[in-house]
Amino acid sequence: MTRSLLRSPWFPYRQSGSAATVRLFCLPPAGGSASSYRAWRSGFPSDIEVIPVQLPGRESRLSEDPVTVAAELVELVADVVVATEGPPFALFGHSMGAMLAYELAAELTDRGTPPVHLVVSGGVPAHLDHLRPAPLDVAGMSDAHLCRYFAEYGGTDEDILADTELMALLLPLLRADLTLCESHRWTPRAPLGMPITALGGAADPGVPAELLARWSELTDASFRMRTFPGGHHYLFDDVAAVIAAVSTTLLDSGGGAP
């Protein structure tokens, strides 16, 4: 791992001396942060180094403005990923993070440094963004409406929503992430060249299994799909099962190499 990776604010839960054969960069859901995947770092086998990505505007980067245009954010993340050295890497993203992970895989492919595997979770396939739930009037949403939305769909804990001081800090981020999601549109491109694995909750109303399966249309390589008990945020209900599935996916394919 390079010094640039160890010092980067993009990767706050860094570790040195890793013997991993593959790195896994993890992108958060809307309103989420690098700590969404903090528990993952101790759950994966030593062959896989988990690197949660800290986007601007949250936790250790709270003083920075969140980015509300997906293409701009993807370019920034791509810059820091390309600047690091190490073993082959894969990408993981949940919900908003799934969309960002796909776009990041495409951007890195165009730069000549593609990931060896793309794992998407709880996200509508990128080319089917017209099938996402009805657009929200983010600018016109009251703070109370925004809180209700994240309570019902975003998986935000009720205790957090009830903390008025904390929510005063979080609401701009929640609004910014929703703006990013609502404004993003897929740009048609050739299928990716790396394998894609799609994961989801069996009871996720926004991404049913038949929709999740259509991620297969975005790769020329192999495709796998698996659903777990639970809804949209199933991956936080049984962390061990999800970690086992992702680990097996990456290691069975030799680090995910096509």
From TrEMBL:
- The answer on whether this UniProt entry bears the keyword Acetylation reads no
Family, per the entry?
A: Belongs to the thioesterase family.
Protein name listed in UniProt:
Surfactin synthase thioesterase subunit
Task: Output the GO biological process annotations, alphabetical, semicolon-separated.
Answer: lipid biosynthetic process
Top-level taxon in the UniProt lineage? Bacteria
The alphabetized UniProt keywords are: Hydrolase
Note the SMART domains from the entry.
PKS_TE
- Highest classification ranks of the organism: Bacteria, Bacillati, Actinomycetota, Actinomycetes, Pseudonocardiales
The cross-references to InterPro entries, in alphabetical order and at most eight, read: AB_hydrolase_fold (IPR029058), TEII (IPR012223), TesA-like (IPR020802), Thioesterase (IPR001031)
- Keyword Hydrolase assigned: yes
- In this chain the Thioesterase TesA-like domain maps to 25-251
GO molecular function annotation: hydrolase activity
